[in-house]
UniProtKB/TrEMBL annotation:
Keyword GTP-binding carried by entry: yes
Lineage per the UniProt record: Eukaryota, Viridiplantae, Streptophyta, Embryophyta, Tracheophyta
Compositional bias annotation for Basic residues: 179-189
Protein name: Eukaryotic translation initiation factor 5-like
Record GO biological process: formation of cytoplasmic translation initiation complex
GO cellular component, one term: cytosol
Natural source organism: Durio zibethinus
Region (Disordered): 149-231, 263-296
Length: 451
């Protein structure tokens, strides 16, 4: 079977690894009842990872003719006589619209249908989420006949909930086992004391060592098992233990240099008291270093915001913006805060609507790893703290928009909210404004678990 590269732009690439069979057609019938049969439509659809009914229906929509695909026999028919070259051109248009990623043009995509009945292409190569033009005629057919969900990616949220339940059950079982071991240890120690008392009383009465009665074998085995289980194979990570290990391995000078970070919390009160008692009002070197670090982070963030704004004005794509974030200086949290400042700077009202318009940029930013969702949530917290009160009031709407767009998952939203209530900014207004959405999210999760 002759093969060709998927996509006309890759036809000259001899090393392109995504290939599909060349189209083979034949005519059936005569006169007004003539039909065009795409013989290898099933093989082509498998290579494109799309149902054969989609491509057959697309030919009918574009040609204005009736089309039919038989699932049992795998026969694809289009009314009328149509040349192979013409159908191949229509297939190329189908690949551009419904197969290739809009960001990297890679055909390794998956069709997703959002909660708002929007068709999207999720790229497995770059993570970009492409929005399909809903004005096309084929979109109504796809919504009525959605693609089958793969077993590996089916209901990821339900799998995460089941995993949490298994972890809770495992922790409860571990606690019960520890209690049983403690009870067994107490019984073993009490039996040992009794045997020692018996042996000492016999010796006082004039008995010899042969009169000593050894404990039963079961008690010995139980004691040995308890002793082995009580051994804790771990390293002491306290500040005192770290100081002792470092002073043993390093010299006195290098040990003091390494322990600066660990002693910082202990010496903080001493430094503040010395600074208050200093008559000339001069600051300590540690305070100067702290100010310098804050100044550097603010400078990095300002430069990142300026560069991101310049690229957004040029119309940079989401994939290019993702690469640009990796090249910027500063921490990952500073980059995420700079991205929000660049995207929504100057917007006081309607922040949630702007989030929906620019969700592709945020989706590309959090596609790097799972921890990037927490970075985005903390950046939203920082942005709303700096923004006006009207933007602060839309926190629930912003979270709802990102949740509906599958940019944020409920697991990370709940984790961020719970950590925020216990953190330093627990008195911030953002937690009160976000509480309605959190309550809705938890109630929806409990309802899904009951179902």
């Amino acid at each position: 079977m002759a093969l060709q590269n998927i996509g006309a732009g890759n036809s000259d690439d001899a090393f392109y690894r995504y290939k599909m069979p060349k189209m083979i057609t034949k005519f059936e019938g005569r006169g007004n009842g003539i039909k065009t049969n795409i013989v290898n439509m099933v093989d082509i659809a498998k290579a494109l990872a799309r149902p054969a009914s989609y491509t057959t229906k697309y030919f009918g929509c574009e040609l204005g003719a009736q089309s039919k695909f038989d699932e049992k026999t795998g026969t694809s028919l289009v009314n009328g006589s149509h040349d192979t070259a013409k159908l191949a051109g229509l297939l190329e248009n189908f690949i551009k619209k419904y197969v290739q990623c809009f960001g990297c043009r890679n055909p390794e995509t998956e069709i997703l249908i959002s909660k708002t009945q929007m068709i999207q292409l999720n790229c497995a190569a770059c993570g970009f989420v492409s929005d399909v033009d809903m004005k096309d005629k084929l979109t109504t057919f796809i919504l009525k006949n959605p693609p089958e969900v793969k077993k590996g990616s089916k209901d990821k949220k339900a799998l995460r909930r089941a995993e949490k339940e298994r972890l809770k059950q495992g922790e409860a079982a571990d606690e019960e086992q520890k209690k049983l071991k403690k009870d067994g240890k107490k019984k073993g120690s009490s039996s040992k004391e009794c045997t020692s008392k018996v042996s000492t009383s016999k010796k006082k009465a004039g008995g010899c060592d042969d009169d000593y009665v050894s404990p039963p074998h079961s008690q010995v085995d139980e004691k040995e098992e308890i002793d082995e289980d009580d051994v804790q194979w771990q390293t002491d990570t306290s500040v005192e233990a770290a100081q002792q290990r470092i002073q043993e391995q390093l010299s006195a000078v290098t040990a003091d240099m390494v322990m600066l970070s660990t002693n910082e919390s202990e010496k903080k009160t001493k430094v503040t008291s010395k600074a208050s008692n200093n008559s000339n009002g001069s600051s300590s070197p540690r305070q100067d270093n702290h100010k310098a670090k804050n100044g550097n982070s603010d400078l990095n963030e300002a430069l990142a915001v300026k560069e991101l704004k310049a690229n957004l004005k040029k119309g940079v794509s989401a994939n290019q913006l993702k690469k640009l974030l990796g090249s910027l200086s500063g921490s990952d949290q500073e980059k995420m805060i700079a991205l929000l400042e660049a995207l929504f700077d100057g917007i006081n009202k309607g922040v949630a609507k702007e989030v929906v318009k620019r969700k592709n940029y945020l989706a590309a930013a959090v596609a790097q790893d799972e921890g990037s969702q927490l970075l985005l949530l903390k950046a939203i917290e920082s942005f709303c703290g700096k923004a006006s009160s009207s933007a602060l009031k839309e926190v629930s709407l912003v979270l709802k928009a990102l949740y509906d767009a599958d940019v944020l998952e409920e697991e990370y939203i709940l984790q961020w909210y719970q950590e925020g209530l216990k953190g330093e900014n627990k008195g911030s207004q953002i937690w009160k404004n976000a509480k309605p959405f959190i309550d809705w999210l938890q109630s929806a999760e409990s309802e899904s678990e009951e179902e």
